Amino acid sequence: MRILLSSPLLPYPPFHEGRDNLHLNYGNCTYGQDIFAVPTQMHAYGLHLIAQNIQSPSTVLEHPTERLFVRELRKGVDIVGISFVLPFFSKVMEMCRLVRKHSPSAKIVLGGPGVQCFSHSTGREDELHGLADLICRGEGVRFFRALLGEDQSRPVSQDLPLGAVVPFRNPLLRQPSATLISALGCSNGCDFCAASAFFGHRRILLASPTELYKAVKISLAKHPITSARVLDDNFLVDKEYVREFGLLLKNDAEVRRRRFTYGTFANMSAIAQYTPEELVEYGIDDLLIGVESQFVDLLGPRIGRKLAGTDAHELFRELTDHGISIEGSMILGWDFHDRKNIEEDIAYYVSLGATFDQIVCLLPLPETRLWRQLQQEGRLRDDLVWDELGFYSRWHRYKNFTHEELWEHEDRALRKAYETWGPSYLRLFEVHLKGYRRFRAHPDSFFRERAEAHANDCRKLLALLPAIRLFAPSEHVRSEVDRLREEFREELGRPTLKSNLEALAVTAIAGLAKLKATLIAENTVQPRSEVYRYAGG
Questions:
Q1: How buried is residue 345: exposed, middle or buried, by Cβ count under 10 Å (0-12/13-18/19+)?
Q2: Do 214 and 252 fall within a single domain?
Q3: Residue ranges of the chain with pLDDT lower than 50?
Q4: How many CA atoms lie within 13 A of 216 on its CB side?
Q5: Most buried of the four, 6, 101, 122, 193, by CB within 10 Å?
């Protein structure tokens, strides 16, 4: 059997009404930070995971052009799998027609969150369903193994392509990291969460602690990396799992020599099971935490239970004091938001001082409880078009705001965080400085090693500080740069000649990025097409 797995065709859609509707250009967590917003390179991880865990040879296409896709079809394939999200509905329809034209005997399998379209009728779903042979709902590895008659119970291995952040889009500054997948979905079942709904409000474990540890070892053996992102919507919920995985890392001499750490996702109730020092011991250096709103009692039981009983200010302070950065997340446009309390919510969130900010407006997606609620209340548009979905869609009526008003609130919230705390790189510099202070004299050598790793990260980020000061969004941020540079000198000494030269180079790069941003209106940056071959077995 010959398998072709693909993401949607290029080109990807341009900005919508002047906005990056799909957040294709940057990771969500640095939006609104001018030239310091960080472009993020990610991959079609689900397709790679399938290809690496079936016995048939396969090809994975990322961001293919039509020409590349057709060229692969003409080689002869038995199964074409297309993973997509809803805004690429028409692209996928086009791809299915190309399959029928150039490889008519091939079976078409549609998967990914985009298949949630089949739970709602806009008048076009029947046509797409008729072009496809099979729909994969949920986890794809077991689905493909069953389709191919393979053993579904075999362990899932993973050696996924490296992701990266690329400051100022300059390849010389590219910072690669590994990606690992421990589980899919989440049992918390938040009303707005499409990922939880897609997997039936369950957390589906893909890798045991030992299997996840083996994936780390594979990445470290192949690449000169020191960090990873563990994809799991609530990784910390199972403390025994996290402890076993963390101690495997801690007790491995090579992992410690490389000073390997990882970031992941967790809600506040899960984090409360751990002391900050335990999290550091288990290898964690970054957490994405959903704050959602300060009005916990108004969020409903499923959302509220992951936040109740936790002092977010104390939690954020404790984590950052232990060298753990935080990707904070909040949502604007809840039904209880009015013109007064939405400003209070924004002020509350900004006061937490997250390292990175993900502030978005409430967006209903098919199969979620929020979608069903709005449908029952008659607040969804009758003329939905899947291709228009994005962070700035007009799919439903907010209770107390127009869409434009909420988008302005989002812009102001991001601007307020940026003007208060500066770019995320500056905040991260301070987190590493705090981590160094916390552990430099710790009686356990493991934590002293972490202190030295924090010191090295401070030295790397130091080169960005002159550019941040030059292009700072406020005088307050400039004074913060000066304060932190002085604290660095007190703790770690004066910058070296090499560090000063690096700072000059980075400032020049930042200046060019600023000039470009001033002269050229931003639009979608089209990713490069990539082809990966897997032998199977």
A1: buried
A2: yes
A3: none
A4: 29
A5: 6
How does 125-157 read in b/e, with b if 16+ C-beta sit within 10 Å? Answer: beebeebbeeebbebbbbbbbebeebeeeeebe
- Is the distance from CB of 45 to CB of 182 less than 8 angstroms? no
CA geometry: angle 414, 417, 421, nearest 5 deg = 145
pLDDT in tens, 370-412: 999 999 999 999 898 999 999 999 989 999 999 999 999 999 9
- Report residue 291: phi and psi, to 5°: -85, -40
Distance, CA of 424 to CA of 315 (rounded, Å): 19
Tell me the CA end-to-end span of the chain in Å, nearest whole number. Answer: 12
* Residues 6+ positions from 85 with CB-CB distance below 8 Å: 112, 113, 114
DSSP code per residue over 438-504: HHTT-SSHHHHHHHHHHHHHHHHHHTTHHHHHHT-SSHHHHHHHHHHHHHHHHHH-SPPHHHHHHHH
DSSP, collapsed to helix, strand or coil, labels residue 325 as strand
β-pairing verdict for 227-231 and 175-181: parallel
Question: Is 234 part of a structural domain of the chain?
Answer: yes
Residue 524 lies in a domain: no
Nearest to 16 by CA among 447, 373, 277, 385: 385
User: Which pLDDT tens digit goes with each residue over 410-456?
Assistant: 999 999 999 999 999 999 999 999 999 999 999 999 999 999 999 99
Phi, psi (deg, nearest 5) at residue 21:
-60, -30
Cα–Cα distance measured from residue 11 to residue 420, given in angstroms and rounded to the nearest whole number: 37
CB 228 within 8 A of CB 180: yes
Q: H/E element holding 222?
A: helix 209-222
- 287 Rama sector, left if φ>0, alpha if ψ -120 to 50, beta otherwise: beta
pLDDT at 27: 65
- Spell out the alpha helix ranges (H) of 26-80: 45-51, 66-74
CB atoms within 10 A of CB 350: 22
Q: Which residues pair with 6 in a beta bridge?
A: 61, 82
Q: Please check whether residues 371 and 487 belong to one and the same domain.
A: no
How far, in Å, CA of 133 to CA of 109, rounded? 6
Residues in CB range of 181: below 8 A, 6 or more apart? 45, 49, 158, 160, 206, 207, 230, 231, 232
**Tokens linked to 349:** 């969130």
- What CATH number does residue 251 fall under? 3.80.30.20
Q: Is residue 531 part of a domain?
A: no
Number of domains in the chain: 3
Sheet holding 107-111, edge to edge: 134-135, 107-111, 79-83, 3-6, 58-62, 530-534
Contact yes or no for 233/255 (Cβ under 8 A): no
Query: Is 138 in the same domain as 283?
Result: no
**In 195-251, beta strands by DSSP E:** 204-205, 227-231
Tokens of 60: 């994975």
- Establish if 11 belongs to a structural domain: yes
Domain residues for 460? 428-519
